């Protein structure tokens, strides 16, 4: 496996590798439900719904609102060009104005009941809805990183230390470097303690 980056820190090398995932982040305990239809890709969450049951995205939207009591419904768009990438809320007109390689593929939504249960509330407030929408958008950001293969791990060979499952290619923001640096810092702290204890024994303090 080829490294995608190498970071030097306190005399060690943090080697960063892409992770080959078998599980989708949609297998996690998510707040939102992704209902997607696509001819070529298996996207989103498993569902009993079929695209044959709806004549348009509006029909699906109305169904989710009426039958599933969805409080928030956000459209999902997929760009399929040299790989796939997903956006929530708006399409890819900025990169493909003609719309040749992108289109809507579904919705991410959450029911009123699930929001109230998740946050132990009795009513939906504007603030609660805004918080929920932020979470749904974050779920799609993570899913998009999964679709694009932007999931990484690190190895510190000298310490036989590694950790995986960091989404996104900003090592500072996704926590990868924080974990790796802490592992190195702990090694230095333990080494300094052992050296101090050995020195005390040597000069007869024990």
Spell out the blueprint of helices and strands.
Elements: E1 5-9, E2 12-18, E3 33-36, H1 57-67, E4 70-80, E5 84-88, E6 102-111, H2 112-118, H3 126-147, E7 151-156, E8 161-167, H4 176-202
Antiparallel strand pairs: 1-2, 2-7, 3-6, 4-5, 4-6, 7-8
3D architecture notes:
With 206 residues, this protein is of the alpha+beta class. The protein folds into two domains: 5-20 and 152-202, no CATH class; 25-147, no CATH class. It is built from four helices and eight strands, in the order βββαβββααββα. A hairpin with a 2-residue loop joins strand 1 (5-9) and strand 2. The chain is elongated, with a radius of gyration of 24 Å.
Uncertain spans: none
Tally of DSSP helical segments: 4
- What portion of residues is helical? 25-40%
Gap between N and C termini, in Å? Answer: 49 Å
Rounded mean pLDDT score: 92
- List the domain count as a whole number: 2
Strand order of the largest sheet: 1-2-7-8
Order of helices and strands: EEEHEEEHHEEH
Rg over CA atoms: 24 Å
Number of strands: 8
- How much of the sequence lies in strands comes to 25-35%
What spatial form do the alpha-carbon principal axes imply? elongated
Biggest beta sheet attributes: 4 strands, antiparallel
Structural class: alpha+beta
Question: Keywords, please?
Answer:
4-stranded antiparallel beta sheet; 206 residues; 27% strand; 4 helices; elongated; alpha+beta; 33% helix
What would a concise description of this structure say?
The chain is of the alpha+beta class. The chain is 33% helix and 27% strand. It folds into 2 domains: 5-20 and 152-202, no CATH class; 25-147, no CATH class.
């Amino acid at each position: 496996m080829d490294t995608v980056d190498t970071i030097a820190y306190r005399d060690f090398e943090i080697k960063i590798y892409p992770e080959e995932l078998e599980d989708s982040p949609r297998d996690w305990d998510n707040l939102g439900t992704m209902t997607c239809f696509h001819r070529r890709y298996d996207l989103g969450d498993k569902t009993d719904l079929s695209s044959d049951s709806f004549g348009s995205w509006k029909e699906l939207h109305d169904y989710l609102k009426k039958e599933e009591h969805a409080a928030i419904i956000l459209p999902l768009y997929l760009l399929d060009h040299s790989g796939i990438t997903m956006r929530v809320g708006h399409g890819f007109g900025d990169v493909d104005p003609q719309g040749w390689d992108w289109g809507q593929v579904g919705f991410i939504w959450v029911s009123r009941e699930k929001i109230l249960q998740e946050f132990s509330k009795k009513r939906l407030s504007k603030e609660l809805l805004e918080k929920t929408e932020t979470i749904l958008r974050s779920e799609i950001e993570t899913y998009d990183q999964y679709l694009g293969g932007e999931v990484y791990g690190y190895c510190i060979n000298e310490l036989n230390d590694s950790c995986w499952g960091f989404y996104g290619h900003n090592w500072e923001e996704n926590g990868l470097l924080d974990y790796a640096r802490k592992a190195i810092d702990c090694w230095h702290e333990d080494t300094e303690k052992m050296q101090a204890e050995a020195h005390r024994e040597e000069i007869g303090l024990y």
